[in-house]
Amino acid sequence: MPNTHPPDMVYAAQHIFQNLARYNERANRELFQHLSSLTGRARRRDVGSWFGSMLGMLNHVLICDLNWLRRYRELSPDSPVLRDPQLEPPNLSWDHDLHNNFNDLQEHRTRLDALIRAWFETFPASRYSEVFSYHDSSGTARTAMAAQAFEFLFLHQTHHRGQISQVLDTLGLPNNLADNAAYLE
User: Which helix (H) or strand (E) holds 155?
Assistant: First the structure.
């Protein structure tokens, strides 16, 4: 007989985002493990993507995640998670990569994934329907519902991990990134 959760446990949106944060952390960790077997030259080789190389794609996702977490400050200005100094790297820009060194990028990704997980453990689900204002990468003022912006954070990462996975496929390298249900246990 399968294990069941207590009948009063509801699988709510907050659980979904917390699971996505854990899955995201795991998928990124596995992706970086796969990429660590490549040379720096291979990671920096132009693969025909909008961001040039796999290193460029990884930097793009990191920069976007940093900016999304900074945008979420509108929802929770006093959040210790969103006030963490690592969200303020001195060379943060939409115009260039944040890290040229793979190990530095991996370390930053690991720390940022821990912050993302902490954010979804602390932000109350009762506020997911709130609308907040932010500026996009071109400076245009926009609004979004919190939960939709949270979804985008994860969908964007998934999109780019898929691109990198495809590049690894063309190189004949294994890349079965978090493609199992073991994380559900």
Answer: helix 146-170
Band (pLDDT 50/70/90 cuts) for residue 1 is very low
CA dist., res. 170 & res. 23, Å (int): 25
Element (H, E) at 33: helix 13-35
CA distances from 12 to 9, 17, 124, 149 (A): 9, 9, 11, 17
For the chain, which domains are there?
Answer: 13-184 (1.20.120.450)
Give the 3-state secondary structure of residue 166.
helix
Residue 49 carries which DSSP code? B
Nearest 5°: phi and psi at 100?
Answer: -95, -20
What pLDDT, in 10s, does the model give residues 23-67? 999 999 989 998 999 999 999 999 988 899 999 999 999 999 999
The single-letter code of the amino acid at 111 is R
**What pTM was computed for the model?**
0.89
Q: In whole angstroms, how far apart are CA 181 and each of 26, 38, 76, 119, 184?
A: 12, 27, 33, 24, 6
Q: Assess contact for 142 and 133: CB atoms under 8 A.
A: yes
- The region, left, alpha or beta by phi > 0 then psi within -120 to 50, assigned to residue 91 is alpha
DSSP output for 94-158 = SSS-S-SSHHHHHHHHHHHHHHHHHHHHHS-GGGTT-EEEEE-TT--EEEEEHHHHHHHHHHHHH
